[in-house]
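Need residues for this backbone.
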């Protein structure tokens, strides 16, 4: 499964690292790609979408629909 999310509030490499650090440890996550200029986070694996949303919020960012 590939989950592509719009995320607000990202502006730099530190933002990308913070999100990767929270999302990568989740069970079922195989890879995390963060495109800061586009405001996109793409997660590959079998993790629950709600867990990914919570991890992104824990990093201090918001998933937008």
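Answer:
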């Amino acid at each position: 499964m590939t989950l592509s999310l719009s995320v607000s509030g990202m502006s730099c490499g530190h933002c990308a690292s913070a999100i990767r650090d929270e999302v990568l440890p989740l069970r079922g996550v195989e890879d995390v790609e963060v495109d800061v200029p586009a405001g996109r986070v793409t997660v590959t694996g079998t993790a629950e979408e709600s867990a990914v949303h919570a991890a992104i919020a824990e990093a201090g960012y918001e998933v937008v629909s």
